[in-house]
Amino acid sequence: MNFDKNTVIGFVLLGILFFAFFWYSNKEQQGLMEIQKRQQDSIARVNALHAIPKDTVAAKKDSLYRDSTSKISVAGNFATAAIGTEQLTVVENEVMKVTFTNKGGRVKFVQLKNYKSFDSSLVQLGNEKDVLSYSINTGANVSAQTGELFFNPSPLTKNRDGSQSISFTLQNATGEMVTHQYILKKNDYMIDWNINLNGADKLLSGGAMNFLWKTQPQRHESSVKYERMQSNICFSVDKEFDYISSKTEKKFEKPVQWVSIVQQFFNTTLIAKNSFENGEVHFARSNDSSDVLANTETSLQLKIQNASSVNIPLQLYYGPNDYSILQHESKGFDKKAAGMDRMVNLGRDVYSFVRPINQWIIMPVFDFFAGFVKNFGWVILLLTVFIRLVTSPLTYSSYLSGAKMKVLKPELDALKKKFGTDQQGYAMEQMKLYKEAGVNPLGGCIPALLQIPIFFALYSFFNSNIALRGQSFLWAKDLSSYDSILKLPFNVPLNFGDHISLFTITAVLTSFLISIYNMASTPTQDNPAMKYMPYIFPFMMLFFFNGLPSALTWYYTVSNSLTLILQLIIQKKIINHDKILAKIDEKRKSPKAKAKSKWQEKYEQMMETQKKVQDLKSKTQSKK
């Protein structure tokens, strides 16, 4: 289609007209909407002047009356317990302050005397929104949750063994009675909770107690994001430990010994001495800006004997995730049952192989140094020195292997020139050279492989060790969290966060120095990817380590520094390159050097086969 000048001008004018029309129409529409709004506001003001004022007090009373009527109806024979005033009773021992409420006859919340939250207040486990209740029959075809009924509290009793007990009672006119007895022992985080049911055959249907436990664990650490990541639900099912962290629900089809809502350093645990029959748990980790870590809801069913009067022994733990404390609290469990100490993450799932390392090596050594060194930063330094000394024989053999390869570098360079692009031929001759010289090309990998289990063991240990919580060292205010020297106005992805950790920077810099030193002392790589590979890991460390506990990044800084020092001492002062070269020449003259192992023979046969196949392909391509 051809357009003359007049046609183009026509289209332009038409476009201008359309633009002007839509602009004018939009302006008129906005003006009309403003007029309508003014009219509606005027009508609303007139209606407000002539409106009959609502009796808000009467409306509130009416609402309360309907609510009270509903509660009384549900309470049935326990109608007198349906409406009441909440009364709080505080009972404390050396380590915690427990607040009980008569509404539900339960623990409302617990404050731990020896631990401070991120805002310097005492760590509190439990809050207003938490629920711990079970259903009872209150009449014919009527049931209610005990958490909605008001119990009668008894006076606090001090026992001869130093423990304290308090009871809450719920009774109706026909003789059925529910009693909650709580016993708080000296210097203990465990609370014994004994439920006594008089008329159990009437209060419960089919001898089943259906417990409902809802809780919202609250933030206590400086980084709510990291604390949420470390939060999970642990449990013992059929006497075996398990947990959920990424999953949102878990059904229990076998007997449950205990269920625990676990935060980074604290937990709340419900324990049944005779085990729950079955149940399920729902876990939803929060992702908003609040201090709530997660929303959890647990349903558990407990079967009781068919009798009119029964006693159900339960326990409640409100306390720290301290390995020794939890191990002590688990002594009363069945010997085959999984102990609560398993909720301290010293290695799980694919990393469960590091748990024995933590239990039998890292923890005892750490505790030994902590016994006479007060500052945990120096304890970590001593622990690092210990680990480096234990692994030093393997480190020495690795450096010796590296020194031998460095001595052979001129011969390797000559082989590269000889074979050129024939990589298979070069590889075969390289293996022969290593065999004659007695060099293990994989010897340098041993320390790197050894670092993997040690790193994962220490990662688990430093994340779960409550002893590091709140402990300062140099510029780090808390060794259990990252050390921030600069707050950023934005958030960097890949776990970097909105801050800069100085210990992370020192760990990265020392890793770079090790990579530079190793690259300078090893044969040059032809593969560009292999050439720059040693520098990639330190760079990635910057992003992934920045949000980790400063205890771990401080360990890495010390470990890298010791590695550099050991490399310099061993390679400059201990290893004599002239002697190594002389031993290599002597070994080459030995008849054993010419003998080939079965593995080497198979390897050479494989390489020769591959070389023949490659030559055949090259000839075929050249003919085409």
Could you walk me through the main structural features you see in this protein, from its secondary elements to its overall organization?
The chain is an alpha+beta fold and 624 residues long. The protein has helices spanning 5-50, 56-75, 200-203, 224-230, 323-329, 355-370, 376-390, 392-407, 409-419, 423-437, 445-464, 502-521, 528-544, 550-574, 577-589, 591-594, 598-623; strands at 88-92, 96-101, 106-116, 122-125, 131-139, 142-145, 152-153, 157-158, 164-171, 177-184, 190-198, 208-215, 232-237, 240-244, 249-252, 256-262, 266-276, 278-285, 294-303, 309-320, 484-492, 497-501. Helix 6 crosses helix 11 (445-464), helix 7 (376-390) crosses helix 14 (550-574) and helix 12 (502-521) runs parallel beside helix 14. Residues 1-15 and 21-26 have low confidence and may be disordered.
What attributes characterize this protein structure?
624 residues, ten-stranded antiparallel β-sheet, Beta-galactosidase, Chain A, domain 5, disordered N terminus, elongated, alpha+beta, 17 helices, 22 strands, six-stranded antiparallel β-sheet
Topology of this structure?
Blueprint: H1 5-50, H2 56-75, E1 88-92, E2 96-101, E3 106-116, E4 122-125, E5 131-139, E6 142-145, E7 152-153, E8 157-158, E9 164-171, E10 177-184, E11 190-198, H3 200-203, E12 208-215, H4 224-230, E13 232-237, E14 240-244, E15 249-252, E16 256-262, E17 266-276, E18 278-285, E19 294-303, E20 309-320, H5 323-329, H6 355-370, H7 376-390, H8 392-407, H9 409-419, H10 423-437, H11 445-464, E21 484-492, E22 497-501, H12 502-521, H13 528-544, H14 550-574, H15 577-589, H16 591-594, H17 598-623
Antiparallel strand pairs: 1-2, 2-3, 3-4, 5-6, 5-12, 7-9, 8-9, 9-10, 10-11, 11-20, 12-19, 13-14, 13-16, 15-18, 16-17, 17-20, 18-19, 21-22
